[in-house]
Every structure is written in C-alpha cells, then in structure tokens.
Amino acid sequence: MTRQFLGALSALALAGVVLGGCQTAEPEPPPEPDVTRPQPIVDPTPPPERPDPGPRLTEDLEPVTHEGKLLDTTFYFEYDQARLAQADIATLAVHAEILRKYRNRSAHIEGHCDERGTREYNLALGERRSEAVRRYLISAGVRATQLETVSYGEERPVDPGHDESAWAQNRRAVMIYR
C-alpha cells in the first residue's frame, strides 16, 4: 500500500511539474516609468555681448576702410628693391593701428615681383618685400603672431604685359586681412 501511495504521489507531482511548465498566462508588464517632459529653463540674464569685430576685413579683397577712407592694401616697390616707399609708411601705420586694436584679426602678406630675373631670385625678392611690410608692422606694435608672409615671386602678375608699366604694377606686396 505504501508502494501504491508513493506511486500515486509521484504521478501527481510529475503532473504538477508538467502542467505548471505549460502556463499560458502572460506575466504582468513592468510599470511604465514616470516620464515627465523637461521644462525649458529660462535664464533671466541676457547673453553676453560679442566684442566689436572691427572694420570689415575679409580675404576676398574687399576694400578696407578706416574712418570712412579707402585704405590701400597694396604697396609698390622699385625695380630690384625691397625698401618701403616713404609714401606707404603712413598707410602702414593705420594698418598697424587696426591690427593693434583688433588683436583677433591677422594679416596675410604676399610678396610679388615682375617677370625679370630667375624664378628663384624672384621668390627670394618677393619674400624680402613681404618681410619688409611685416617688419614695419611689428615695429609699430603689431604682434608677430598676427602676421604671415608668403612669396609668389613672378607667379601671380596683376598685369600680364611685358613693359615697364606692367612690371611696375607687379612689383608689390599685398596685405589680406583675415
């Protein structure tokens, strides 16, 4: 009898395990999180004012003005020279004033030559011309980090002619504000 009782108990336990594994009721889903939309924070303080960017000075050779006057950005040189003309000193002084006032601005100075001379010689002469402008600006208080020079020698003529008039236009240094 105990044997029959144990057999019936085992059969009942096995049926419970089998039927319990076949439960079809879905588990209760987890509660949805409490989602609240963030409200924008209103800052009562106004945004800081931007510093004055200074005169409109761009790379695309727009005219540079100072106190309503057009300011030259091209400086011409005599044949085979890298000495600044006396007439250009006053203009360069105004450029120095602008660059001292607006330290966030910089200038790219290009040195150019006419077609006479070898390519190597003209590259060196163009460099001396751009450096002449750079040295003057530094002596007038502009930070060296605001100035960058490059020489194009005879590679970028303004006037493609082959006479003294064209050559005079091509012997130059050009300032481009950035």
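^ that was protein a. below is b, sequence first then the tokens
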Amino acid sequence: MDHHMPTRVLILGGYGGAGSNISSLLLQETDCDIVIAGRHKALALDLSERLNAKFPGRASGIYADASQSESLKTALQGVDLLISASTSLDYMEVVAKAALLANIDYLDIHYPQQRVAVLKNLSKQIKAQGLCFITQAGFNPGLPSALIRLARSRFTRYEKARVGVAMNTRFEKGGALDEFIDSLSDFKSDLFREGRWRKANITDAASFDFGPQLGKKQCYPMSLEEMWALPEMLGLQELGIYAAGMNWFVDYLVIPASFLLGKVHKGLGRGILASLMVNGLERFSPPQEEVVIVMEAEGEDENGPKKVRITVSYSDAYFITAAPVVACVRQYLQKKIPPGLNIMGHATDPEILIDDIKRMGIEVEVRDL
C-alpha cells in the first residue's frame, strides 16, 4: 500500500443507523477516504453527496450486496479496510471471505455472539495473509472489556469487575432489529465466580445506578465473547456483564416470546415480534433516548481496598456505537493493532480509546470511590 495515498475504507451498510454515523465520524476524525456501500445505491450516493458538501471529494457511494461475493469483489477494488456495519448477518462469512480474497483488513460491529465462531474458523488464514481483522467493535460489545481494562492501572491488585448496560432507545423496523430478535433465541448468560465460569440464573440479577435519567435498574447477566479472556488477562476473581430491561411490555412479553419462538425455529414470528417491539418501545418508554454503560471495579492499591466506577453515556444508540469504532480505526491506522483476529475491547489501548470517544462528544466519568 502506498502510504502517501489516504487509506480507503468501504463501509458496508454505510447509510444505515450505525453506518452513517461511522461514515461521517471517519471523515471528521481521520484522513481516510470512504466508500459507502450497500444494496440501495441511491441511499449510498445521497449520503456521500451530503458528506462531500462538508468533506469535499472524500466520499463515494457504490452498490454492494453482502450475499454476493462477486458484487463484493467488484466493490472492494482499491479498498484497504472493509467495515461491516450491515445487518446481513447470514452473510457474515461471505463478507469476511471477500476481505480475505481481496487481501484487505476487516472490522465488524455485529452483536450476535455465536458469529465470532465464523471468524475463528478463518483465523489461521487471516494470520497467514498478515491481515488485521477486528470483531465485536462498537459500544456493546466493545466498550465493556475496554472499560474493565481501563480500570486495571488504578489497582495494585484487581479483584472484581462488573458492567451494566441500559438503554432507552427506539428501533426502526429492519435488519438491526431482526438481528437483535434473532440474538434472543441464542441468549446465554454466564458469570465468573471463584475462579471459574458458570451458567447464571435469574437469582443472579444485580442492581446498577444508571444516573439521573434512567435511575436504578435491576439487570440480568448476559454473555459476551469479549469477557471470556479477561479473568486470566487481568487476574480477576469475579466478573460479570449485565443488561437492564427496556420497559415492562418489551421485557415481559416481547423478549420471552422471541426467546421461545426462536428456540422452536430461528426467525419464527420475527415480523410480528419486530412490530410489537417497535410499538412497545414507542408507547411504553420515556421519550428521551439514553444509553448508559456502568463499569464497577474493586481491588486494592497501596492504600488498601478501593473501588472505581466508570460511566459512559450518550443520547443516541447509533452514535455511541460509531464513536468507539472510529476510535478503534484511529489506532488501526497508527499500526497499533496487530495482524490476526482481534477483539476490539482487547486489542485497543483503552486510555486512548476512551479519550477519543470523549473528544467526539460521548460523556465519560471516572470516579474513585
């Protein structure tokens, strides 16, 4: 790659909710040129035109279909990094293999955890080609492990960490919502206690204070790929990630129904569930959007026992997804992320990552308790 030329980044799904935020932030925060790609070429061209008004000549739009390797091959010509922000999850393997074939780097923001296995199967090839693949980027997954690692430097002995995620947000019908509903049928929850992982159950619920707007909430354990390696990496004795519910209608009706129907057959009733979810969030949630992540850590420093609490919040779920992605790309551009398959929250420098998202406008508070 000629380093006098700006890095060219193709964002698949670059005109969607998260994708459009990634597109504009990349232009603002890096010297990259971007290619906005997806099945709706008109939307890609429309966004690139609007971005070029502010960042002349740096954005273009192109047709690309995540399910068609030929279409991806054409779109990826002259590209250095592919960001998969599309919700065509069924084609994740097609997209990853297209990046390998084009011999370019890759980053994704996909939520469903079982998808990481697709990339693990390709990890030997990724390494052999000397490529950098980054998965589980964004705010959740993404920020939980980065925040847990960030607290490390504040302890001489790091013992416990737990993360709570709460969001009051709206979903539009479409891929992102389908992805969320599908992920519910694969829902697993695990906690690390007394030196080992174990399945969590309903009695393992924990309470977190999410601040003035969302208040105190009961949260339930979940499972994220980025958590597994942390106990060994940091010497932790206890670790857990928890999610708060959305509102009574969604928590008690839509989510259990999605879980049960998904167990019968993946995608069963997805259309009806998506409608219920959209309407349930519209009717029964407070109007002001808010996403909050709270990380609480315990351990010791030279003065004895100590606790650290980090809160990250923003009023838009798409923007809080995009900011860590772009902060991660900044470190990638500085060659700080090694070749091979990487998890965003493990491979980035957490201090720099958090400083960057703060500068982009995300609210971050770090407190010693």
